[in-house]
Amino acid sequence: MKELFILAVVTVFTLVTYYLVEPFAHSQMHKHIESEGFVYKDLPALTKKGDAARGKELVMGAGACAGCHGIEVEGMPAPMDPVTAAQSYGVNPPDLSNAGAIFDPKFLAALIKNPAHALMVEHKFDPNKGQMHPMTSFYGAGGDIDQEIADMVAYLQSIAVKKEELTPAMAFETACGRCHAVHYPYVVDGKAHPAWTQIGEKPTFKHKQDELAFETKVLDYQDALKKYMGTLPPDLSMYIRSRGEHHIKTFIENPQNYLKGTAMPRVGVTAEAADKVIEHLENVGDSKRHERAELGPKVLIYMLIFALFAILWKKEVWKDLH
Ligand code: HEC
Ligand code: HEC
Predict the structure, then answer these.
(1) Burial environment of residue 98 by CB neighbours within 10 A (0 to 12, 13 to 18, 19 or more)
(2) What is the mean pLDDT of residues 164-182?
(3) What is the per-residue pLDDT for 30?
(4) Which of 192, 179, 273 has its CA nearest to residue 231?
(5) pLDDT (0 to 100) of residue 19
């Protein structure tokens, strides 16, 4: 009886101390931010139904999208190599092949109309002060501008891979890869993938000279990017471990919630694409997570069986002594 009482006292004090130190400290040090489900409430809903064929003409013509972006699925490579593009725009405009599957349609429409607003970087780009966003706004091709934008969005959706075929790496490369490197090579389903740099995957080189030439290009790109962003975006290889899934997900939904005034744009991905990005970061930074999850229940079962034997053994030993 006395032992039970002591145990209860110790348990209560341990729990109180634990609460004061751990979750309490946590709640004071980190703001808790809930996801809004990637619905982008602040952006107007799409009211027009788009026509993909008309959208294609606009993307290639009056919209000027193809003047800055590659569209590989249409056999259109990027108009500039990544380093030249970064020296012109600050960053390499992403290939648009799968933009329709990665970015929210409402967000895409808002982006085409006013990039700095959709990307939440108006504190950096104020046209009244002559600070223009490097992606030009679309001012219309002479018709109903909202219809024209809906057409372009419909076209981007029509050429993109189906949601089910969007791989984690594709989502990451289009939405994050122009700014963030991930310098860890990684393995998915037994297939090895090279490290990611902001100018693309790092190939394996036979000659040291070629490798150095590639690395010089990465450095040139990073110089331009640093000038554009004010800081070099961090390598994300290990962020899934240091920050965790919840933090990264709510951060990409609205970086301003965490870092007021940050240069990182709101990228406008759909909820599904955000999950793919997280999955990619887990594939790189936490590849053993599935094995670990499988191990948990096994350890518990082992402990249960062990406890059972321990009780039986204790009974056996004490049987004659009572
Ligand atoms: C003058 C060059 C230019 C033109 C024209 C242009 N873009 Fe861009 N676009 C950019 C740049 C630069 C970025 C990257 C901006 C950044 O990351 O700060 C970008 C980013 C994007 C993104 C990624 C946004 C995100 O959230 O990550 C999409 C999608 C996009 N553009 C679509 C379009 C479409 C559609 C058109 C045509 C209506 C278009 N762009 C026209 C330069 C351009
Ligand atoms: C146009 C460039 C750009 C794009 C695109 C971009 N980021 Fe960033 N990111 C930045 C910059 C710049 C910082 C540093 C922010 C700061 O210190 O203010 C940053 C910081 C971060 C951080 C660190 C936040 C922290 O808590 O310290 C994470 C995580 C991150 N980005 C994830 C992503 C993911 C995931 C994507 C794609 C969905 C992405 N970023 C797309 C520029 C970018």
Answers:
(1) buried
(2) 97
(3) 66
(4) 179
(5) 81
Name the maximum alpha-carbon separation found in the chain: 99
Position 29 pLDDT exceeds 70: no
CB 30 within 8 A of CB 254: no
Q: Report pLDDT for 302.
A: 92
Q: Determine the Cα–Cα distance for residues 283 and 278; give it in Å rounded to an integer.
A: 9
> Scanning the structure block, which residue is given the tokens 């341990």?
14
Whether pLDDT at 188 is above 90: no
With cut-offs at 50, 70 and 90, classify the pLDDT of residue 27.
low
Q: What is the pLDDT of residue 28?
A: 65
Ligand 2: nearest atom to the Cα of 247: 26
Q: Which of 30, 125, 166, 176 to mutate to test the pocket of ligand 2 (most atoms within 8 A of CB)?
A: 176
Residue 65 in contact with residue 59, Cβ under 8 Å? yes
Burial 275-296 (b: 16+ CB within 10 A, else e): bbbbbbbbbbbeeeeeeeeeee
Ligand 1 pocket, mutate which of 56, 68, 155, 173 (most atoms under 8 A from CB): 68
Q: Which of 280, 281, 284, 279 is nearest to 184 (CA)?
A: 284
Task: Supply the pLDDT for residue 249.
Answer: 96
